[in-house]
Amino acid sequence: MSIKLTTDNQIQLFLRQNKNWLIKDNKLHRDFQFNNFVAAFGFMTQVALIAERQNHHPEWSNVYNKVIVDLTTHEAGGITERDFNLAKAMDVLIIS
Question: Residue 96: its pLDDT value, please?
Answer without folding.
Answer: 63
